[in-house]
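### Sample
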Amino acid sequence: MNKEIKSVITCDLDGKLETYSEGAEKLFGYSPDEVIGKGRVSDFSDGQVVLGHVVGWLKEAVEKGEWEGDTVFLHKDGHEIPCHIKITPTKDKSGNHIGYCGVTTSLTDKTPDEVRPNIGIMTKIFTWLVIMRLPFLTATFVPLLLGAAVGSFIGFDVSWGWLGLTILGGSLLHIGTNTANDYFDHTSGTDEANYNYMVPYSGGSRSI
């Protein structure tokens, strides 16, 4: 296996970059000033790889002391890089787990398709749940259902067909509003200015 460029990156428990080697700069194309304290390790991977695999890799690294394998990373200019990575947990002087260290080498004898992690159907479904933030739709249809139930209970004639159309319309409006908000966050620079957290479903376009 011909290993070309070696990158060493450390991050905190939230994935925010703390150290970034010269090899990392060569491999990923970002300067240290662009990413240290600002970027996250997830920025170097496809979103579905992050959702479907990275959490499991980190869990195994903590439980077994390391995780090692091949995957595909993304360069700053968007092209894919076949790589081999070894992940180990980092600890403070008291032995507390404080983050992770990733040692990555490019694979010149592999293509991206040869090392690309498999993306399962559940990961694809979860991706759309994140993009549309579907759990927040409860704020739309729960009040409608509750109101219809109360109305029916006290004697009002409730058309369940019209109720269904109302729920559908309200849900589409909710999804559209969320999408427009995420688009604004991305184009206005809000995501970059508020990079101290990222929560699935509520993390704006950073989740996407």
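Helices lie at 22-28, 32-35, 47-64, 112-115, 121-132, 138-153, 160-188, 190-193. This sample (PAS domain-containing protein) is used throughout the tutorial notebook.
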